[in-house]
Amino acid sequence: MATSPGMGRNERLHAARQATPSPRVPGACLSRAELAEAVNTWLTEHTDRPGALDEQAIARYERGTVRRPNRDYRAALRAVLGADQDTELGFIASGPSHEPLKQPHTIELDPARVWSPDEQARVEHVSGCARRVDQPVLDALAGTLAAVRRLEDETSAADVLPSVVAQARLADRLADNAPSGLHSTALGLASEIAQYRGWLAIPRGQWDESRAHLDRAAVLAVQADDPLRLATALSFNAYRAMLVDDIPTAASLADAAGRESRVDPGLRTYMTVQRAEIAAYGRDTNRAARLLAEADHMIEQLPPAEELPDSSYWYTPSVLTGHKGFVLQALGEHEAARRAAAESLDAMPETWRRSEWAVQHRALAEA
Questions:
Q1: Taking CA 70 as the corner, what is the angle to CA 65 and CA 75, rounded to the nearest 5 degrees?
Q2: Is 29 helix (H, G, I), strand (E, B) or coil?
Q3: pLDDT tens digits, 85-123
Q4: Which phi and psi angles does 21 have, rounded to 5°?
Q5: How far apart are CA 265 and CA 312, in angstroms?
Q6: Which tens digits make up the pLDDT trace of 28-47?
Q7: How far apart are CA 95 and CA 5, in angstroms?
Q8: For the region Disordered, what residue ranges are annotated (predicted)?
Q9: What is the pTM of this model?
């Protein structure tokens, strides 16, 4: 008997794959590698993004580790496996956990299960009475936010969005009710979650929603006097503006972010690369080249990844080298750009190489 969707293994997806014949081996079912290849091909033919699935990703779907891939992957899986509805493949919008807890809402807030029992109890208590805000509760929420950011590396923006929306609601209540000694800390955390919501709207092409969240994140960061979160919100907003070809706005936002000196080395290095890319798209090649040379030196001086804050953990030499490739591509140095992208991917952890956010790195390396 097939297991219900969302409860442990996704037997429906597994059964649908096994019921589909292999295009290469007569009499055999479709292998996980063949399914991943077919999904990637469908995405290339029907969307503006290449696919990045492999057999390990299909295995995670069948184990139920990833219960609901993003919209494009679900559409591709339906097409390849001949399904009309997501539910035929065991994908549902929400459902009970196979590790039931007495308070289901904590599953949504902490999908990566990083909270200790004490942290969980504290958050459950403060969720029912937001006036009892203390530092351990803020720390617990910050910890699960950091875990969800890393969960996105293995899944997609769409997969983690429900958790981030729930975290945002709680963070806003905590900020509204925090005592004076914790008010700035709570505002800073609310800013970071709003900033992350703005980031998650970008892969879905929701540009106005992204800007609204990022604008709010910047305001909250100013209220909290939090330079790191302010610079990050401005930098993310500059990235959004660049993607919609609003180069003057992107340049203004990136320059504003770059004027904040009280940030960690990873973010400061990325902001330098970002300003170089924006300058290149703005046809200011001299400035782009100067900033790129400055970024090269900064990358060499970066501290170990474990010394970067949770909000900047991805600003490592491997990722930043890939962003250098985007600058070189904008400058017309296509071969050097491809080499930088390939070098970047080779140095990344495997999870990052396959992630949704690395799709541009993969596309450039294969150009």
A1: 115
A2: strand
A3: 888 898 875 443 333 333 335 556 776 565 666 666 666
A4: -70, 150
A5: 9
A6: 899 998 998 898 888 788 87
A7: 8
A8: 1-26
A9: 0.69
Backbone angles phi, psi at 29, to 5 degrees: -85, 165
Q: State both tokens at 89.
A: 């493949």
Token pair recorded at residue 71: 């919209």
CATH of range 1-100; options 1.10.260.40, 1.10.10.10, 1.20.1440.230, 3.40.50.300 = 1.10.260.40
Residue 241 is encoded by which pair of tokens? 């503006």
CB 321 within 8 Å of CB 347: yes
Instruction: Kindly write down the DSSP assignment for every residue of 45-99, as one continuous string.
Output: HHSSS-----HHHHHHHHHTSSSS--HHHHHHHHHHHT-SSGGGGT--S----SS
Identify residue 313 by its one-letter amino acid code: Y
Which residue bears the tokens 């690395």? 358
Task: Tell which CATH classification among 1.10.1660, 1.10.8, 1.25.40, 1.10.10 matches the domain 101-263.
Answer: 1.25.40
Nearest CA among 289, 291, 290 for reference residue 271: 291
Q: Which two tokens stand for residue 188?
A: 């800073």
Contact 77, 39 (CB under 8 A): yes
Task: Give, to the nearest 10 degrees, the angle between helix 157-177 and helix 135-154.
Answer: 170
First to last CA, the chain: 46
- How far apart CA 2 and CA 102 sit, in angstroms, is 26
The Cα–Cα gap between 1 and 21 comes to 22
